[in-house]
Amino acid sequence: MNTLAGGAKGTGVLAVVGGTLIDGNGGTPRTETVVLMENGRFSAVGRRGEVAIPPGATVIDASGQFVLPGLMNGNVHLLDAIMMMGKGGAEYLARFEGRLHEVIEEASQLSLRGGCTTVFDTWNALVPVLNARDRINAGQAQGARIFAAGNIVGMGGPFSADYSMQSRQVISKTFADRMDTLFDAGVGRILSTLPPEEVRPIIRDYIAQGLDMLKVAISDHLVVTLGWQSPYLCFSERVLRVIAEEVRRAGIPLVSHTLSVESLNIAVDLECDVMIHATITSLQPIPEDLLLRMAKGRGWSEIQPTTHGYQCHLDATNHPWAGYAGGAHEENTVRLIAAGAPIILGTDAGCTDPDILHDLPPEEIEDRPWTIGTDHLVWMRAMVEKGMTPMNAILSSTREVARAYGMVKDYGTVEAGKVADLIVVKRDPLADIARMSELAVVIKDGIPVDFEKLPTQRLVTKYPRGEDFERR
């Protein structure tokens, strides 16, 4: 099997033959199919006997297996944002400073290993994430395709009150300030002090640095400092309108960060394309009228659930993260599913440091929703537990993500003309969504990925750690 070379496009004809195709459009799966790929795109899709396989084509036999679009994760933080909010963030950034783009690449490879061919990084240090994105696109590094937002407009860096200000007590001010500056990128908390006419050129310049989408903090991220029930609005309505105008002018998606009912209501009013963790509303139920507007509106709700077993452990131990997807937040999820709201896969997952994972009890390892590479599989099982059909879980992880970000012309389904991202799973995921973990084939840009060998160069995941020399 050929190995994917970063962003290189397949040039010869590749055929996946004999599989049952779940094409991402939601119709009845088609049996005995032929999927042809050439020059990085699907060139023909149809039944065996209806699509001719060109002489010399490379053939992958998918008989008895199931063919799906490459998965798309609508919300990751490839530098692990969950660690930035607590233990491990400071040592993580210090250990890998100067190599953060490599950490991002490693995280994207872990995601690709699990069948995600595209990820949307909605908070990260701007320069490293754009560097990793561009290296993957140019074929200089392997990994899932990255679309990046950089910093969340209105938020501070990892050692601000939005993440882990308490870490400043045990690290140097110089290092903390350097990291905060790297992540802040000039669009942090200072913007909340400025009038609309001063915010506009800052946003315009920020977008011009190469953003794929812009994410705005409608409410703050002080949950670590103040808890789940103390959200504040970051910007006036006037400033938010200016930010939205500049995003629309640039023709990129507008993404929201909200932690309260009122901030979520503002996101709906702004017609945000993607509303990140829309069900997290400071443990308050989403009012019925707002929920119906979300179900019928133009925006997609990104939801971050936990499995029943994982949530039971968090509740039983009074874990600080019990409120993340439990209680009213879980009820919000169930109600949005029942209402038929547009929903997409998103996980907040990143490349978690093994030292942090090693510290966790077994109950917090299994079904952990923030571990990149298995996060999307946990998400699908959790959403099915809460009432989503397996087919809709697949659609929310493929076509709907592409729709939400305005990229369905090129991604999200297996159709002629689209980018040739595809996975093959061994057994029917519509019968049991957990079978999405049974990968047989991963193809990105029309080239098979030797996914079991990812990541290619272990940096974060090289473990155990220790000195590289022996005492003489």
Beta-strand level of the residues, as a percent range? 15-25%
Number of strands: 17
Number of domains: 2
| Radius of gyration, in angstroms, nearest whole number | 22 Å
User: Which parts are unreliable, with pLDDT below 50 for 5 consecutive residues or more?
Assistant: 1-7
Q: Given the helix and strand composition, which structural class is it?
A: alpha/beta
CATH topology of the largest domain: TIM Barrel
Distance between the termini: 44 Å
Strand order of the largest sheet: 2-6-15-16-17
> What's the story with the biggest beta sheet?
5 strands, mixed
- Looking at the structure, what is the overall shape? globular
H/I helix tally: 18
Look at the structure and name the CATH superfamily of the largest domain: Metal-dependent hydrolases
Share of residues in helices:
25-40%
What is the CATH top level name of the largest domain?
Alpha Beta
Q: What is the CATH architecture term of the largest domain?
A: Alpha-Beta Barrel
Mean pLDDT: 95
How would you describe this structure to a colleague?
The protein folds into two domains: 14-70 and 413-453, Urease, subunit C, domain 1 (Roll), CATH 2.30.40.10; 71-404, Alpha-Beta Barrel (TIM Barrel), CATH 3.20.20. The protein contains 18 helices and 17 strands. Helix content is 33%, strand content 15%.
